[in-house]
Design brief:
With 484 residues, the chain is of the alpha+beta class. The protein folds into two domains: 273 residues, 3-Layer(aba) Sandwich (Aspartate Aminotransferase, domain 2), CATH 3.40.640.10; 119 residues, Aspartate Aminotransferase, domain 1. It contains 15 helices and 15 strands. Keywords: Aminotransferase, Pyridoxal phosphate, Transferase.
Length: 484
């Protein structure tokens, strides 16, 4: 694993200043109960004592999960010096950093007016910092806020740290680069977010697809698959990728008891959980569902959060919360790939997250907004009864429909529907083998104007009926001849 001792300059000083175990980790964490319900992603009861039999992973333990490629990454001296410069500030005279002088930046003031009437203003030294290079791990003030946020929302373990990323999609890519060797087995749900599939495809992984029911991944199926592989001496997966709240595309929410079962299986069969949770605030069940991170007593969860869905997709900002040795590894990837995410985006999100009361109000307002749109599209879809089946999504932004009498919707989507001016997403988009036949459609209710939802549903009905007419001659031709 990365150690400051690899640096060639004053290693004792670097070890003191750049030690992986931050003050956040070493301090005794005190949790506050004064948190709005919408910001609670933990259980009020302690983790099951059944997990006591499993060891907590150490820094050396994580080495077996890291890819050969990632193990070759070493810290860039200039990036480490940048981190050191921000820690020491004016305590030193620096001839080191290759930074431009902020006095030559042409911007004097940035003001964003918010919908709540509170202006967000950056000027002076704060604006100068927001326009400057930053340590690869992230804007120091934002890192402090994110650590506090994850403690408050998830009861994040004191062994974990945070890395700011260029959106959650970027973090998926970083984690795959860090944890997936070519040909590795990877655990996924039967239908999976297409961005994760795009990341995994170049690794030619052996995908182990786990069936879902109305409560998401079925732990009994997962256990059966893992035990069977173990008994047959097959290579065991190191990683489960899962979207636990409003799974894209199915809209499912994995309840607390199932998460506990899945986490226990991760401990028993020695794999990590990559928890991608962009729809965490858009849970319509009315039931608090603790995150995998909140259960992570053994150090097996890498959690991805995103500013995209609730605040701004264009700011391209997310954060990875994971055991500190894995965060250090991912940071080396950031150093090589993009230096760091946009500092200006980080400064803006810092302001948004630091006001917890306003954050809770906005999260509740956004959830109610999308819930109303979910219900509106659900009402409009009643014209499809008998032509398709679906259940209202428990969270997220999507309906997942199975079309009756159409075993492959691909041509229907890109010919019949498109010719009518109706855009749909075929189920193949969420399958690793997109050449397979699929009878599902994903429908999005997040942006479609409310007054167009009924029209969209009627158009979809007509498209399905037209597809039935086109498919009927094919079905007759394929049918076996009747006996005389």
């Amino acid at each position: 694993m990365f150690s400051p001792s690899k640096l060639r300059i004053n290693t004792k000083l670097f070890k003191k200043l750049l030690d992986l175990r931050s003050c956040y980790e070493l301090s005794k964490i005190r949790y506050s109960d004064d948190i709005p319900e919408i910001l609670k992603f933990y259980s009020d009861t302690p983790a099951s004592c059944q997990l006591d039999k499993y060891p907590k992973l150490t820094e050396d333990d994580y080495t077996r999960f890291i890819t050969k490629k990632a193990m070759k990454r070493e810290p860039a001296d200039t990036r480490q010096i940048t981190k050191l410069a921000y820690k020491l500030g004016k305590q030193v005279i620096s001839l080191a950093e290759g930074m431009p002088n902020e006095e030559m930046f042409p911007f004097a003031r940035l003001q964003l007016s918010t919908k709540t009437g509170k202006d967000l203003v950056l000027e002076g030294s704060e604006l100068a910092a927001a326009l400057q290079y930053m340590p690869s791990q992230g804007y120091p003030a934002l890192l402090t806020e994110l650590r506090s946020l994850q403690r408050a929302l998830h009861r994040a373990p004191d062994t974990h740290d945070v890395l700011v990323t260029n959106g959650a999609q970027h973090a998926i890519y970083q984690c795959a680069d860090m944890l997936v060797e070519p040909g590795d087995p990877v655990l996924l749900s039967e239908y999976t977010y297409t961005g994760a599939l795009s990341v995994l495809r170049p690794y030619d992984p052996e995908l182990i697809l786990i069936a879902e029911d109305e409560s998401g991944i079925v732990p009994e199926t997962l256990e059966s698959v893992l035990e069977s592989r173990l008994m047959r001496g097959l290579k065991m997966p190191k990683l489960l990728y899962v979207v636990p709240t409003g799974s894209n595309p199915t809209g499912l929410v994995i309840p607390e008891h199932r998460k506990k079962q899945i986490y226990e299986l991760a401990c028993r069969y020695d794999f990590l959980i990559l928890e991608d949770d962009p729809y965490m605030f858009f849970n319509y069940t009315g039931i608090r569902t603790p995150s995998f991170l909140s259960m992570d007593v053994c150090g097996r969860v890498l959690r991805l959060d995103s500013a995209s869905k609730a605040f701004s997709a264009g700011l391209r900002l997310g954060w990875l919360t994971a055991p500190a040795p894995l965060v250090a590894r991912a940071e080396l990837h950031s150093q090589a790939e993009l230096l760091h995410p946009s500092t200006l985006s980080q400064a803006i999100i810092l302001r948004v997250l630091s006001d917890r009361a306003a954050l809770a109000e906005h999260a509740a307002r956004a959830r109610d907004f999308y819930l109303a749109r979910r219900d509106a599209l659900g009402e409009a879809l009643q014209v499809l009864r008998g032509l398709a089946d679906w259940t209202p999504p428990q969270a997220g932004m999507f309906y997942w429909l199975r079309v009756h009498g159409v075993d492959d919707v691909y041509d229907m989507v890109f010919h019949r529907a498109l010719s009518r001016g109706l855009l749909l997403v075929p189920g193949q988009a969420f399958m690793f083998d997109s050449a397979q036949r699929c009878s599902h459609l994903r429908l999005t209710f997040s942006k479609l104007p409310l007054h167009l939802m009924a029209e969209a549903a009627l158009q979809l009905r007509d498209v399905i009926l037209e597809e039935h007419k086109v498919a009927e001659p094919r079905r007759r031709a394929a049918a076996p001849p009747r006996s005389r």
